[in-house]
Amino acid sequence: MSNSQKTQIFVTGATGYIGGSVVSALLSHPSAKSFQITVLTRSPEKVELFNSVGVAAVVGSYRDLEKLTEHARNSDVVFACADADDLQAAKAILLGLKQRYDETGKVPILIHTSGTGVFIDNAAGDYATDKIYSDLDIPMIESLPKTQPHREVDIEVVAAGEKGYVRTYIILPSTIYGIANTSLVKLGVQNPYSIQIPSLIKASIDRKQGGVVGKGLNLWPNIHINDIETLYITVFDAALKGPGEAGHGREGFYFGANGEHRLGRISEIIAELLYEMKLGKSPEPTVFPEEELRKYFGGPYLGSNCRVRAERAKLIGWNPVHTVDSLWTSLEPETKAVAEMQKSKM
């Protein structure tokens, strides 16, 4: 099969935790031989490594709007796995996909990464909410103000999908956990760590004491990195089959969650682990004062509530296997790995 006959796939954020997992899954996909994968990377030294596994790599970032448009224009499928809040980058990708539609008459596919952070409140750790969002309840999602994280970009993506020149699918991961162990991690091109839990561990190590936001009563959903990987591929497979296989556009929201946790419990376990490792003064977490919340997290984000039910993807065959028990099990290796990284930086 010549390259021109293959399904042209463009992936942004390919060296990241999510994007790298998506590319690894595409490389091991049963139809991998029919894919031509191109990725965007900020690291020139990673181009040859990508090439070594049959992936074309372009050096650039979300600031390179013309490159985004050009490579989207040349693609049947775009996986946007980088900054979920970059409106200009999203517009550049959508422009390229519109150009592809105008030139070929074929409707390309955009699988865009958002996040369940779009649903956060201002609890600051002091209470749990009973408000739960379902990805089948579109009016509830549409009731969100534009000022919520990710929301402005989500609106732009949905609007493009409703215009008909692109089929859009938005994936909203929740708290992702687990150290990625993909082919791209082994190759040395992918970041194997998440953001939310490692940031809490790093802050706790830096202050020499496990920390908690407020009373730690707020709730968040969670998902293992391997289950997020299968979510993207489940949506991708359905999208390739045709427009009738899975909701898209206005109905194209897919939550990535398969469990729920109290943020304070994570803080408690991290505090216990750091105390055992002689990196914390007490096994009980102490409250982050306001200046530390700003310093480490940019504000009280980790004190927010976010509650969801991931139902839509299960209708098209997504079957996540990791439950919240896997989250608790993951915290010790994650804490030890972050502690080692922090130690090596000293």
Helical fraction: 40-55%
Q: Order the strands across the largest sheet as they lie in space.
A: 3-2-1-4-5-7-11
Kindly report how far apart the N and C termini lie: 51 Å
Largest sheet: 7 strands, parallel
What portion of residues belong to β-strands? Answer: 15-25%
Low-confidence residue ranges: none
Overall shape: it is globular
Query: Order of helices and strands, N to C?
Result: EHEHEHEHEEHHEEHHEEHEEHEHEH
Q: What is the number of helical segments per DSSP (H or I, 4+ residues)?
A: 12
Q: Give the strand tally.
A: 14
Determine the mean pLDDT: 97
**Alpha-carbon Rg, integer:** 20 Å
Class by helix and strand content? alpha/beta
Model description:
The chain is of the alpha/beta class. The chain is built from twelve helices and 14 strands. It has helices at 17-27, 47-52, 65-73, 87-104, 138-142, 151-163, 183-187, 196-206, 225-241, 263-276, 290-297, 324-345; strands at 7-12, 35-41, 56-59, 77-80, 109-113, 133-134, 167-173, 175-177, 211-212, 219-224, 253-256, 260-262, 286-287, 308-309. A seven-stranded parallel β-sheet has the order 3-2-1-4-5-7-11, sandwiched between helices. A three-stranded mixed β-sheet has the order 8-10-12. A two-stranded parallel ribbon has the order 6-14. α10 (263-276) crosses α12 (324-345). The model has no long low-confidence stretch (mean pLDDT 97).
